[in-house]
Amino acid sequence: MSSYPPLNSLRAFEASIRLNSFSRAAEELNVTPGAVGQQIRKLEDWLGVELFVRSVRQVKPTADGLDYAARISPALLQIIDASQHLRGQREHTVRVVMPPSFAAKWFSKRMARFLIDYPSTSLHVGSSVQFTDFDRDPVDIAVRYFDGNDDKLESVLIYRGQAAAFCSPAYRDRMGFEHPADLARATLLNDILHDWWEEWLGQFARMNPSEIAAIKRIEIDQTSMAIEAAIHGQGVVMANPLLAEEDVMEGKLVHLFPEQVLVVPSGYYLVHPKNRELRGQVKLFRDWLLGEARELTL
């Protein structure tokens, strides 16, 4: 036998003692009086004593029942207090997950503004390339890089997907790039999560698949690493301009051929489940993030 009494039975017992009625306890617990009676009987069987004296129209607690109620009530109140405290903490917490590159290159330099505007809120930021499972993961809202189509999600576009070529100024000068077709001499840094080289070279350099396949290439499975490799002169990276803008402003990267920007099907979307009402703090975060994103060109 478990050392724990049946917990549902404890709820039924506490309500029945407090309200002095199985019927009123059933109404509070949203079950039938018969279900309350069954839970009380289950607890009595577990304890080996009668907790109530039953008559045709009423039930009265026995001396053992009153004594048991007096001894467990403080513990039940502690459980309620601890639960409400923890729930209250969660009410002021926003848990958001986003792609690592988006978090590092765009969100990280803005997130403190949210806490300045809403100092009573605790912000928990996670990063992952995997799609959040809102039914399983403790996440309130997420930024997702995809096509925006999911019947279970509310999706608001933050930034439309684009792909453009970037490299370090020194690499550009050394290689003498003047036209897109000159990238045949480059080393392509291919972010396999955003693999758009074939489309970009085909559209802007008029290369065929065999010509593209002949270009030296390094495959990289992290966007931030691919951008860093380009900063260090390892080749030309195909990246979303949003993720490269800070490095361009700081002179670490140059945007090769700025007129040649490929529009891609995916983009950054703010998403949350359609069937779940957002808590107040999460709504504040959603509205704040969309406000921050207004500066972006969709």
From TrEMBL:
InterPro entries: LysR-type_TF_proteobact-type, LysR_HTH_N, LysR_subst-bd, WH-like_DNA-bd_sf, WH_DNA-bd_sf
Residues of the HTH lysR-type domain: 5-62
PROSITE patterns: HTH_LYSR (PS50931)
Alphabetically ordered keywords of this record: DNA-binding, Transcription, Transcription regulation
Family listed: Belongs to the LysR transcriptional regulatory family.
Name of this protein: LysR family transcriptional regulator
Naturally occurring in which organism (per UniProt): Thalassospira permensis NBRC 106175
